[in-house]
Structures are given as C-alpha cells and as structure tokens.
Amino acid sequence: MNILSFFAVTTAILYVVVLVKRAANCHDQLIRVSLAVFACLGWWAFCDAFFYVAPTVEQAWLWMRLGALGWSGFIPVTAYFFMVMCGDTEYLNNWFRRALYWIPGITVTFLFMITDSTVLADELVPSKSGLGWAYRQSFDSFWPYLLFLELGSYLGVALIRLYLWQRHAKQDDIKKLSTGFIILDVASIAVGILVIFVIPQFSTYFPPMSFIATLIFLWGYWNELRNHDLMHIELALDPGSIFESSMDAMLITDFEWNILYANDEAKRILGTDEPKGKSFSESLLQEGRVLLQEFAYSGKDHSSGMDLILSNHIPLLCSVNRTMTRKRGHQVFIISLHDASSLKAAQKKLDYLAHYDELTGLPNRRKLGELLDKWEEQYIKTGGDFSILFLDLNRFKLINDYYGHAAGDLALKATAEALNSCIPKEDMVTRLAGDEFIVLHATGLLSTEELAEMIRKAVQNIDCSSFAPGNRMETSVGYCRYSEAGSVRELFKLADERMYAIKNKRHAAV
Predict the structure, then answer these.
(1) CA gap 192, 184 in Å, rounded
(2) What's the pLDDT score for residue 356?
(3) How far is the first Cα of the chain from the last one, in angstroms, to the nearest whole number?
(4) pTM of the predicted model over 0.85
C-alpha cells in the first residue's frame, strides 16, 4: 500500500462511517437518496485504492472499470438527490418517466465498464513518482464527451433546478442550503475535472487523485445534510427550546423508561421537581407498565397512542415515539402526555346527559331501551319474567299552567323521589318524556298489581305545599308482563294502551 492508496482507503472508510450514521434515520426519502450518493462515491474511493497499487496494467484497467459504478453512477443519483430536495419527484410518478430518467445513466455506466479503454484514459502508464498508474487521455475517442454529456444532462439540469429553487424560496434557511449545495457541487466537479482530465495532459508524475474530489463531496454533503436536518428539527435543537413551549407534558426516556428530560408540565403531572433519572413506568398503574413494555419490545411501530393512568390516578392521553440519538445511535422514546382529567370528566358528563334525565336524575328513554334489551336477554336465558308500569301524572298540566314551569319541575322531581322510595331495590324508575314515567319491575314476591297500587298511593301522598298549595297529585298506571306481550315493542304498546284506558275512564267518571 502506498500513501495514495492509504488516503483512498481512508476516504472509503469515512464513507462507510457516514453511511452507517445516516442509515439510522433512513425513514426520510432525502436521507435514503443521500445514502446512495455516499455508496457510489465510497465505492469509487475503494476502487481507486486498488488502482494505485495494482501490480499490472491489466489489473489497473480492471479497477478503473469497476470504479465506473462510482464515478459515473453517482451522477444520476446525485441529480435525483437534488430533485427530492427541491420537491420535484412528482415528475417521476409513473414507470415510463422513471425509465426515461434512469436508463440513460445506467446504460452509460455499463458502457464505461465494458470498453477496452475508458472515458478517463486512453492509456495507463506508471507514474513518475512511483505511486501508481497515471492516465494518458488524447480526447480522440467519443467516451470523454459522453461523460461530459452525462454530467450536463443530469447534474447540469439539477443544478439549474436547484438555482431556481433558491431564487423562489422565501426562507433564508432554504436559500443558504441550496446555495451551499450549488457551490459544493461546482467546486467538486471542478476539482474532479482538474485532477482527472487537466493535470494528466501536462504531467504523469502523480496518478489522478480523484479521492480529493470525493473528500470534498463527503465533507460538503455531510455538512449540508446536517443543515437540512436542522431545518427539519430532527432532534437537532435543544429540547428546552421546543418542549418547554408545549402545553402538554413532554418526556424523553431511555429504553428502560428512565427519564432523561422532562418539561415543566411533566414535572407538574408527575408531582416532582426533579424527575430526571426516575422511571416513568414506575409512576404508572400496572396496566400502563404492561402497555409500555409491549411497545418497547415490539420493535415494529415507530409511534403509538395509548391511555395511561398515573399511580396518583390522573388519567393521561399518551403518545410515544421511538427514535435514535444522533450520536452513538441510542434508542430513546419521546413521550407526549396530556392530562385527561377534564376530558374524562366532560366525557362522563356527556355520557350522563345522554342516558339520564338532567332534571330528575332518572334514566331517560335511551337508557330505558338499553335496560329493556338486557332484561329481555335475561328473560330468554332464564325465563325470569318482568313487567313495565306506564304512568302518567293526571294533574301535572294544571300545576304547570297555573303555577308555572318552575313548579312543574318541582312536581316532576317530587314524583321521581316518591317513585324511587316505593319500588323494590331490584326495580328501576325511568322518565320517558314530559310527565310520563316507566317502572321496570322484576316479577317476584311483589305482584305488578300490588306495585301499581303502591305507586298510586306514593304519588297521592306527595306534599305539594311547596310548589302547588292546596293541590294533590294523582297518576294513572297501566302495566304489562313481558311473557304476556312477547316482545319489547308489544310490551310498550299494551302498557301504554292500558294506561290511557284507565286515564280515559277516570275522565269519563269525572
């Protein structure tokens, strides 16, 4: 190995290191394409290392041709990199356009690998420095011009597009990024042409040191890609500048859920001023710990949402994102926590309003339907009969019209209390609508007829002095057993008809 071969090998190793570091974030399309660029240039440097120390001219030709995968292949790949950066990939959204883009570059690269001479040299001679093989290029063949055509067609157009992107960009960061890439590529191509084509025309003292151009690419691309990451805030900013502005609790933990960072809201929810180093999972109830462990060891999902409950019984809406640190590639979790106490309370209130009457606190029509479905299922399974008692307040309209709606509300509340106080504990009182109530009665020691009489007396005994002085409340009750009706719909119909029959009979008597 001579010194030039050593530098070429070192360059190739640097590309491998960069590939490994960038591969940790390969979910980003731009990063994936940059990996392909690095792979091409790294291969070029690797082949150059063997070219410099080749013992025969035949082997030197072999490594030069193999290197075409790098020195020719990187051209369309790099141009595609710029297309992705500028957001132009929609132009290749079908197979025909993709073929038009890639086939010329692949074909040219393949031709460079199988020709007797190559685009870089007509003849190889030992360098006068003794460090390897030098080029002799007469430019009499078509091949050098084909390379320049490839450069102009791919990178020329890409650089023009990059320039236009820079001109129309409103963000200073984009202007700086695009300008940096333009300068980088122009400088790298200029150095490459200088050491590969120009210098060999005047001297064969040193072999063409193309690894210098690849080193410029390596340094420049790595620097500019880091700037791109900064623009996209890919774990590049100090967590405090992002997380502290969040209204939600934000945590960063290691793979064992030990807290590495917590913003102020997280400290409040966790109830500690210094959570760093403590285990987040230990602050959860057991069910939450299991969910976290399942996510950690699944190794599949990058993110997940879950409902957790702290050991202090605060409910949390949780979002967990799995990512890797920039240095050393450690796996960490970014956790967003939202205190769901108020949300849970609101959901509970909405659920209550959906199933219960706000005035009396009794189950409403919707809840009644759910209860009847359950009682019907129980009847089918066990044969345990049940009844419904349909009741309507006879004097309610008089009270509501004469004393006002406030008095009517008090009358309804008093009725609900009277009904709840007289029915067996296994029965259920519901408010259907207006002054209509329904009692679900599980047929047992107390018959439906006896319960109906108890209900009538309970309503008559309501003290009306606070809302309708001098008045007495009465109710008409119609009832039906499920075994008599055979269905919930028929059960309602019969109980309703019987209640109105009693009500009409009462009016006729008056």
Answers:
(1) 12
(2) 92
(3) 122
(4) no
